[in-house]
Amino acid sequence: MGDEPLKAGRKWYGVPSLRPKRGWSIGTKLLVLTLPLIAAVTGLAAWAVHERNTANLHEKLTHRARSLHTQIMADRQYYASVIVPRLIELGGSLGPEYKQVHGQFPLPATFVREVAELTAVAGDGYTANLISPWAINPDKGVKDLFQRDAFASLMKNPTRQFFRADTIEGRAVMRVLMADLASAQSCVDCHNAHSQSPRHDFKLNDLMGGLEIVIPMDQYVKESRRDLVLTLAGEAGLCLLIVGIVVLGTQQTVTRPLARLAERMRAFAGMEKGPLTQADAVPSGDEVARLDKTFGTMVETIAHQANELRDANARLEQQVMERTRVLQGQTDVLGLVAQSHPLPEILDALVRLFEQQSDRSLCSILLLDADEIHLRHGAAPSLPASYNQAIDGIAIGPTAGSCGTAVYRRELVIVSDIASDPLWADYRDLALRYGLRACYSTSILSASGGVLGAFAVYYREPYQPAPHDLDLIARVTHIAGIAIERERAEEALRQSEEQLRQAQKMESVGRMAGGLAHDFNNLLMVVGGYSQIILGRLGADDPLRGEVEEIAKAGKRAAALTHQLLAFSRKQVLVSKVLDLNAVVTNMESLLRRLIGEDITLRTALSPGLGHVRADPSQIEQVMMNLVVNARDAMPRGGQLTIETANVELGKPYVRRFLTSTPSPHVMLAVSDTGCGMDKATQARIFEPFFTTKEQGQGTGLGLATVYGIVKQSGGGIWVYSEVGNGTTFKVYLPRVEEAPDATGPSTSPAGELHGSETILLVEDDEGVRKVTTKILKTHGYTVLEAGRGEDAFRVSGRHDGPISLMVTDVVMPGMSGRELAERLRSSRPGMKVLFISGYTDDTVVRYGVLEARMAFLQKPFTPSVLARKVREVLDAPGKQG
Fold it and tell me: Most buried residue, 54, 383, 484, 879, by CB count within 10 Å?
């Protein structure tokens, strides 16, 4: 039959159709089809109810039988233990059937029988019979099939019960037999002694007897039938209700939606084939037939659309081929990146890849400079070289053409006509001069989101990019970002390796300088001290004065050289203070003008509101002196020297590329000249110790190395930019601090006030230094107590009865350090002040803990006047020191 609609008068499964002429609806068909199912479900429910009722009836009857059995046995026990003994006691007769065995009470079986008979008389149609396979009374023996089957079963399961529905005298009854093996000796003795017993050799657990209870089933059967009828009626009603709900639900959820679907499909097909004709119409009640007709029409429409899909598929295949070529080009470029080809070659390949996939396009890649302001030429093989040169170095901004604006905004910028777009106002004439009319550009980003440059696409006519162009530029800029970032990472690695080599060189020199500094400073202390003492005793016209002055000068030069080496290696002892660099420059300006000469113009550009830095004032002055001298030597024919200060915020890219400082607020000190400049090779080595471009004997090669060491030890960084013939700029960056500047300035104590009469304990393990220091102090009027070690100092202090105003002690000595000695003497001489002296380097002095702010310290070698001034300063200072 399929989906063919039924015709009037046809038979359906042999049954004449009663359907009206219009087609049956899906709900009607569903109702007809579910009638057999309703009948089957109702029958199944009736059978289930019948089985349930039967089981319930059996359970109810057996429960009733167990209750009767329990009642009878309880009454028997009461009868035997209470009633009968009372009757005997009163002299009553128990009847001829009661027997006594060995003087015991009457038999338990007799009591059970009599109690059972009384129960049956008082019961509601129930009967109870005492039976046994070995009954003494033949009337109480096994008589029918039920009793035989019951005892046969119970002999195997003595503690169970046996029940069966039966018919007695045409009446339906439930028969229940509950039996057990005799466990009382009186029962065994009775059977063995009774003349009518079938056996006389019974033992315990050989006998079995039971109580059969017969229960009429009439009332229960009536109740079961009534329940069955009610259940069948309820099930049938429920099935009809469910079918009704299904039919109504089908009308709502199937029939009507199918009708609406057929209408929509007809409308869909009608868009191509026109409205359905009268010949195509089907009965309105048969939704499936309507859907079938409409579906046939729609198939024709789909077939027509399939041809269009084949055409679209061909176009897609063409796009896939183009995309494959793009991916192959991307793979080739990534191969160049992986093989570490030069960046210009990689960028050139990327530009050509885009131009091959986008007709009439002219592409360019610009790289963002380190200052993050200017764009530099990267690759543009199809654009005129003069145009590339003209836009090389343009600054980014909100109206800086497509490229500069894209980098400034960090987004895609589309200019479809350069001639009228305001973004090209400053560069319009340049672009139109080279025939460029449209340009769209986007930023090239790193993996972390930083801007690396811009990718630009030009056209020689007004143009609006298509989605294909935008997808392609996204792919190309992603690869460009990978290539640029890799190139910069490799460059950073090369710079890091170079910095590491430079640091290793500096560290080697530093270790050498630090190792020699202590002994060399002690030697210079002796040479310089005695030179000054001798000069103090020689007259101005003494013939030996010139020679001694040369010795003193040589000692000073040697001491200066040692200081430079320690400064370069960052091991000198710094006395840091909070400084205003503007004040330092201003104080040194007159000295610097005399230093550079009249043919060089000195210009200062000091920023107002300049932040403060923490550094050693004398070392910062040394940095300025060395940089100014280096600039003077670079301008032998004169020029201009500029000293500039400013507050700056150093970003991570700038710090990572040029400095080893940390990104934070800094203060900049810049020294620029208009001299001869330096090439790249010279710039790479200018901070190396003993490297110089001057002639032999014109310099030590330690000036810029000293600057480098001082700046690094002060926690800052230094950067140099130079071009041959265009001068040089050194920029020193020091971390900015928020503290107020410390008061600075040299001591103004007159020479007469440097003498004193106090007692000083001098502790120095180097004999030469100890002797010359003693002479200097005695020359200035002090009483000096000498000690070569810490233990000697204890003995000297103990033998001296008077006060000791000051202890001058070396920091590092055998056995006991100067700091430890001062702490141990404090208990016996609490008012004694301490001045520490040392020729060791900064890290050693710090390790011995004598660079705290309250402690007085003097670095070797020092002159007699410096020692005298420092001693007087410590003695005159209020409170305790050391």
Answer: 484
- CA atoms within 13 Å, Cβ hemisphere of 616: 18
Instruction: Measure the CA–CA gap between 204 and 434, rounded to whole angstroms.
Output: 132
What are the phi and psi torsion angles at 368 (to 5°)? -75, 130
DSSP string, 526-540: HHHHHHHHHHHHS-T
Distance CA 437, CA 450 (A): 30
Sequence letter at residue 683: Q
Q: What does the angle CA 358 – CA 363 – CA 366 come to, to the nearest 5 degrees?
A: 150
- Distance CA(737)–CA(881), nearest Å, equals 27
- How many Cβ atoms are within 10 Å of 445's Cβ, its own excluded? 18
CA–CA dist 762, 790 (Å, integer): 10
Helices 545-568 and 703-713 pack at an angle, to 10 degrees, of 50
Predicted TM-score of the model (pTM): 0.41
* CA 733 – CA 715 distance, rounded (Å): 9
Q: What is the pLDDT of residues 365-404, one digit of tens each?
A: 999 987 788 999 999 999 999 999 999 989 999 989 999 9
* SS3 call for 823: helix
Pairing of strands 374-379, 856-859: unpaired
List CB contacts of 30: < 8 A, sequence separation 6 or more.
246, 247, 250
Tokens 């006030």: give the residue.
753
CA distance 141 to 136: 8
Report the chain (882 residues): mean pLDDT per 10 consecutive residues.
Answer: 42 43 58 70 73 72 71 64 60 47 46 56 65 73 79 74 78 77 68 75 76 75 71 74 72 68 64 47 56 69 81 77 73 81 89 86 90 89 92 90 92 93 92 93 90 93 90 88 87 77 68 64 76 79 80 74 59 70 89 86 90 85 87 89 88 56 80 88 75 60 76 83 88 88 54 79 88 89 91 90 91 85 88 84 49 68 84 82 56
435/553 Cα distance (integer angstroms): 73
622 within 8 A of 706, measured Cβ to Cβ? yes
DSSP 3-state of 640:
strand
CB neighbour class for 873 (10 Å; exposed up to 12, middle 13-18, buried from 19): middle
Task: Estimate the share of the chain in helix, then strand, then coil, as percent rounded to the nearest 5.
Answer: 50, 15, 30
Token representation of residue 791: 């233990």
E strands, 574-638, in order: 577-579, 600-605, 612-615
Task: Tell me the C-alpha to C-alpha distance, in Å, between residue 772 and each of 175, 197, 543, 775, 856.
Answer: 139, 148, 24, 5, 20
Decide: helix, strand or coil at residue 624: helix
- The DSSP secondary-structure symbol of 544 reads T
Cross-strand pairs, 364: 456
Q: DSSP letter at 191? A: H
Amino acid type, 499: Q
Structural contact between residues 669 and 648, judged by C-beta atoms closer than 8 angstroms: no
Determine the Cα–Cα distance for residues 210 and 131; give it in Å rounded to an integer: 6
Cβ burial of 487 (10 Å; 0-12, 13-18, 19+) is: buried
Exposed / middle / buried, residue 663 (Cβ in 10 Å: 0-12, 13-18, 19+) = middle
Q: Tell me, what amino acid is at 712?
A: K
